[in-house]
Amino acid sequence: MPYLGSEDVVKELKKALCNPHVQADRLRYRNVIQRVIRMSKLDQWGQAEVLNFLLRYQPRSEEELFDILNLLDSFLKSSSPSVVMGAAKLFLILAEKFPHVQTDVLMQVKGPLLAACSSESRELCFAALCHVRQILHSLPGHFSSHYKKFFCSYSEPHYIKLQKVEVLCELVNDENVQQVLEELRGYCTDVSADFAQAAIFAIGGIARTYTDQCVQILTELLELRQEHITTVVVQTFRDLVWLCPQCTEAVCQALPGCEENIQDSEGKQALIWLLGVHGERIPSAPYVLEDFVENVKAEAFPAVKMELLTALLRLFLSRPAECQDTLGRLLHYCVEEEKDMAVRDRGLFYYRLLLAGVDGVKRILCSPKSDPSLGLLEDQAERPVNSWASDFNTLVPVYGKARWATISKCQGPERRGLELPNTASFAASGPLIPEEDKERVQESSGSGVLMLVPNLQLTAECFEKAWLSLQVAHQQALPWQGAVHPDTLQMALQVVHIQTIAVSRAGAQPWKAYLSAQDDAGCLFLMELLWEPGNSAVQISVKQSEPRPEALSSFMSVLETVIGTIGDIKL
Amino acid sequence: MGLPGEESPVVMHHDDRHFIHIRHSGLYLVATTSENISPFSLLELLSRLATLLGDYCGSLGEGTISRNVALVYELLDEVLDYGYVQTTSTEMLRNFIQTEAVVSKPFSLFDLSSVGLFGAETQQSKVAPSSAASRPVLSSRSDPSQKNEVFLDVVERLSVLIASNGSLLKVDVQGEIRLKSFLPSGSEMRIGLTEEFCVGKSELRGYGPGIRVDEVSFHSSVQLDEFESHRILRLQPPQGELTVMRYQLSDDLPSPLPFRLFPSVQWDRGSGRLQVYLKLRCDLPPKSQALNIRLHLPLPRGVVSLSQELSSPEQKAELCDGALRWDLPRVQGGSQLSGLFQMEVPGLPGPPGQGQSTSAPPLGLGPASLSFELPRHTCSGLQVRFLRLAFRHCSNANPHKWVRHLSHSDAYVIRI
């Protein structure tokens, strides 16, 4: 248990917060929450724990919500970054229905985040930058006026520079685009090749909105004739031409001469693609491709050869006289001498296509293309804050979405073997049921005819009244390993939309639990679970508000699956 | 997730655990977790642990840790319980920690080592050696001869970016007021700052342009009741290190920048000879000086030789790791220093379309970065007017108070 104050206070709080009866009684629970919030002697660690714990609380009314927000307002101004971020996350999650409150919170958090970005501790800087990027997904203009803080400095470690470049790319607007592009242009000639390439890609990203200036800069970079620069510039051009067709002319004028400076596979592929698709506008295109074909035997990358085949064929359709000979030689090589089967197959395919007639080829290779600009607009559409609010102030922004997805996939099956930590595990934000089991439970509840109403809120008095007035509709005994932690049970049941009214604490004798659920036809199910220690089975009694046998049997199957899953989890 | 160079990523995942680390004084402090928790909490905890170990052992380093393994173990045991932070307050911990710190050599007033972070002149014009503040704070050997001392440092980090045409692109000052107290805890102290200093762009106090900062933030234990009126901070600090106040200022420095560089480059592409003439002008007031100035200028690849002409004998310049390093131990305010450097760089690419001899800088002649210290100087102009103690027990003589102002460069970059 985190250190929350003196012994007595801690004991009281522990009792209150872990007691399911208190949880069931909303008023008492809320009072305890208020007490926790008002604790003044907490140090920064206690405050961070309290904020974390409060994430699980759902205020009932708008009034209560704003009450809590007002009380916690001072935490947002704390000098400790972890408290500020914890408070920000809590506010973002609690206020999920009030976007203007969320925007307000993000405004308040801007100052501390920027201070963290210039902190002496580089690691803190890095974490702050990742969160800045997260915020920029939803509020692209949020940091635009502070773009200078994200300029890279020579002595910074590589990982910080990369993050800053990404941030610069995303916070561009009309007012700062000039300065930001100047700055990025400076980075493109940096000694470190990786950093220079990252800067060039960033310029490519900005080019989607400010095409002319960026294409100008990229063209100038080509004149430096540096290998690592040229290859990335050509790749950027390839992506840009696809998304912003208006710059094709400028790109085509810049391309001649590049082929001398590109040695790597990616760059070559990009160049060849451009020559193939827009070859009509580039006078020297067939001759450049001819050069590649001359050296095709020495070409080490099969991907380049594939690209070469397609490009030459495309160019052939628009400039047949110049390409015919070259194409013939290439096809001959691919079919007769090439060892890579994929390349050979493609060569053979094109050859047979040509035999079938040029019209057929035209139809296949020059069909109308999709309009990528729509995809571009969707991509740039702002994502609502709620999509990432639960990831704020966790390790997810630090890893990045893609890496986090791979990590959680590996973690899923391994989790089952782990013991759950001791009972006061408030910090555990991961699901208490392993991922796979959750899916199983959800499937079984969805496949039946029965649809249970989620978020049923039945008060204790109503439950008691209903229980006493109904007769037992069904009784069953299910195998049961032992006492289960109330939290585990509650969460598991919540997944299938069964509400826990009250549960005895683990180890009580006899152990009882009262549950309720309601299906979409309005039929109420009330259950009692009774377990005597020493038994290997739990007694379940179910009462139904309306007699409906099929609903009852579907419901029982759901319950069996859940109980079975819970039984698997060790305490 | 490999990175170029020898940098490990700050957060790594391996075998179902997340590893997060900070680098401090040549050590890696690593925390592991299997839950998805806040990176800020972890990083803050690690920083606080580093400070705590410094408080107990004097300074933090590889030797210190190896001498004090038992103490470190005990500290970690008390600070964390089942992964929850119990407390990191030095006050509360001293009730539990039994082990004594082993210090490498006993503290001696005659030890005058290189300039550290704490300890310098005061109003009483006495000088404490820089190692004065690096003894352990929490030694329970209550040595009566050990003085009660308190060190207050106003430290500013200056980040500047100047474009190649001389215009100022960015200037940023991050300041901290740090306190290291050897006094018994609970002694109340009052720190008075410059009265005219304003917070934010719209506030106006006193006459004239005044001293301004953009934002301030205070440690939670500082009482601010007199801050609004007289710019006085009141606090009762525990023993050990504490950051009383943090502030920052961008874009509007009251004083001119400390250094301006006027480079001129002559490059003969035919013979591959590169000539760089650097004139460094110090714009500090004539009575101030800058110390330990180093100019680092990355050079194009393939630099073969270096010949130099420097304007004064105590400077030194050498080629180091593909860059020029020019060391100036001391520069007086208002003075100008110059250096002429000639290099051979065969086969160098650069902006085409220029004649054989050009003054455009070749590729790879990177931005010049300066590192320096400015003692007794704050870039923002903020000063500590007084530091008063209300000491309760007169068992010792008057406690000594050391106040120091210091600015140093964080990233002072001038593009060529």
UniProtKB/TrEMBL annotation, chain A:
GO terms for molecular function: clathrin binding. One of its GO terms (biological process) is protein targeting. Residues 452-564 form the Beta-adaptin appendage C-terminal subdomain domain. The keyword Protein transport applies. GO terms for cellular component: clathrin adaptor complex; Golgi apparatus. It is found in: Golgi apparatus, trans-Golgi network membrane. It is a peripheral membrane protein. The keyword Hydrolase does not apply. Keywords: Golgi apparatus, Membrane, Protein transport, Transport. It holds the Pfam family Adaptin_N. Belongs to the adaptor complexes large subunit family. PANTHER family: ADAPTOR COMPLEX SUBUNIT BETA FAMILY MEMBER. Component of the adaptor protein complex 4 (AP-4). Adaptor protein complexes are vesicle coat components involved both in vesicle formation and cargo selection. They control the vesicular transport of proteins in different trafficking pathways. AP-4 forms a non clathrin-associated coat on vesicles departing the trans-Golgi network (TGN) and may be involved in the targeting of proteins from the trans-Golgi network (TGN) to the endosomal-lysosomal system. Adaptor protein complex 4 (AP-4) is a heterotetramer composed of two large adaptins (epsilon-type subunit AP4E1 and beta-type subunit AP4B1), a medium adaptin (mu-type subunit AP4M1) and a small adaptin (sigma-type AP4S1). Interacts with TEPSIN; this interaction requires the presence of a functional AP-4 complex. Interacts with GRIA2; probably indirect it mediates the somatodendritic localization of GRIA2 in neurons. This is AP complex subunit beta.
From TrEMBL, chain B:
InterPro entries: Adaptor_comp_med_subunit (IPR050431), AP2_Mu_C_sf (IPR036168), Clathrin_mu (IPR001392), Clathrin_mu_CS (IPR018240), Longin-like_dom_sf (IPR011012), MHD (IPR028565). Gene3D superfamilies: 3.30.450.60, Mu homology domain, subdomain B. The keyword Protein biosynthesis does not apply. It is found in: Membrane, Coated pit. Residues 147-415 form the MHD domain. It holds the Pfam family Adap_comp_sub. The keyword Membrane applies. It is a peripheral membrane protein. GO terms for cellular component: clathrin adaptor complex; clathrin-coated pit. It comes from the Eukaryota. Keywords: Coated pit, Membrane, Protein transport, Transport. PROSITE patterns: CLAT_ADAPTOR_M_2, MHD. GO terms for biological process: intracellular protein transport; vesicle-mediated transport. PANTHER family: AP COMPLEX SUBUNIT MU (PTHR10529). Belongs to the adaptor complexes medium subunit family. This is Adaptor related protein complex 4 subunit mu 1. It comes from Pipistrellus kuhlii. The lineage of its organism: Eukaryota, Metazoa, Chordata, Craniata, Vertebrata.
